[in-house]
Write a structure and sequence with these properties.
- By secondary structure, the chain is of the alpha/beta class.
- Helices cover 28% and strands 21% of the residues.
- It has helices at residues 72-84, 102-105, 108-114, 124-131, 220-233, 244-247, 249-257, 267-288; strands at 39-42, 45-47, 56-60, 63-67, 92-96, 119-123, 154-156, 161-164, 167-173, 182-190, 193-200, 238-241.
- The strands form two sheets. A seven-stranded mixed sheet has the order 1-2-3-4-5-6-7. Strands 8-9-10-11-12 form a five-stranded mixed sheet.
- Strand 2 (45-47) and strand 3 form a beta hairpin.
- It starts with 38 loop residues before the first strand and ends with a helix.
- Bound molecules: zinc ion.
- The site of zinc ion has 5 residues, from loops.
């Protein structure tokens, strides 16, 4: 979500068209859910999301894995993008999610429709909200933020692993942006070398979030701090996230297409992102707790 779409204490009066959970204000808010040509990031890893609201496809010898569904429009695009890449969407066996906000979870039901046999894995806190179609978020309330529910088949905890066809994803609960915000790590081969990919949930403090003594949800401030420490502890060699804008997806894609095979290998960019997000969090905390 973009900072300028919310008043700090005002009522939520934004259009879905500018809802972007960016860590910092973008010069020009973009919709995020327009169709975007799918492309290969590394061996068995593909971008299948919209212009900013991301979704990733992992291919394995036993079927497909999808991370995030975008909103309902992106969810439909994900299914079409999988087909465009030459894979069968019905072969999605594993579906996971970063967080319950509609721009990442509303499209999950669309993917389930294309692959009714898949198993959906989510954290306890965010999974309960996705199962309720977006209802129950402590901050984003009302019909604008609600969507077609999808009940998790499996509830994941911090450190749990989800495996399919020799590919293993590890779930890391990195709360703050949402209570059950989940960062996923997994190995990916790029330019002949196996590296750690890290799909960062979100580090942004939404305008109106309460930090310190009064919190948007109990424990939120401590969750953010723990999440920043976790992200710093990781190699984060292939940095991706729930929003393309968090890691410069479009610029990296352009570099990849101009011949830079390891364009998505960016541990320094990952650290810089965490630095910026933590500084923004600290500034907001200080403002609210002088
Ligand atoms: Zn969000």
């Amino acid at each position: 979500m973009n900072r300028r779409t919310f008043g700090i204490h005002g009522t939520v009066a934004l259009s879905a068209a500018v809802f972007v959970c960016a860590a910092h204000a973008q010069p020009k808010p973009e919709v995020g859910n327009e169709p975007f040509a799918p492309f290969k990031i590394g061996e068995g890893l593909y971008y299948v999301g919209g212009t900013d609201w991301t979704s990733y496809l992992l291919t394995t010898k036993e079927g497909l894995i999808v991370i995030d569904g975008g909103d309902a429009a992106v969810g439909k695009q994900v299914v079409a993008n999988i087909r465009t890449l030459g894979f069968d969407p019905a072969k999605v066996k594993v579906l996971v999610n970063t967080h319950e906000h509609f721009d990442h979870a509303a499209g999950l039901a669309e993917i389930k429709k294309a692959a009714p046999g898949l198993k959906f894995y989510a954290s306890a806190a965010d999974g309960a909200i996705i199962a309720a179609g977006g209802k129950g978020d402590p901050f984003l309330t009302g019909p604008r933020f609600e969507y077609e529910p999808l009940k998790p088949d499996v509830t994941i905890k911090d450190g749990d692993k989800v495996s399919l066809g020799g590919v293993t994803l590890t779930a890391h609960i990195t709360g703050g942006h949402t209570k059950g915000c989940t960062t996923w790590t997994f190995p990916v081969t790029i330019a002949g070398k196996v590296r750690q990919a890290l799909d960062l949930c979100s580090a942004s403090v939404l305008p109106g979030y309460k930090l310190g003594k009064t919190e948007t949800y109990p424990g939120q401030t401590a969750d953010y701090r723990k999440s920043f420490a976790f992200w710093r502890s990781q190699p984060c060699e292939v940095f991706v996230a729930s929003h393309g804008g968090f890691y410069g997806m479009k610029a990296k894609k352009a570099a990849l297409e101009s011949g830079k095979a390891d364009a998505f290998v960016d541990p320094a960019g990952c650290k810089a992102f965490v630095d910026r997000a933590e500084a923004a969090f600290q500034a907001e905390f200080k403002k609210q707790n002088p």
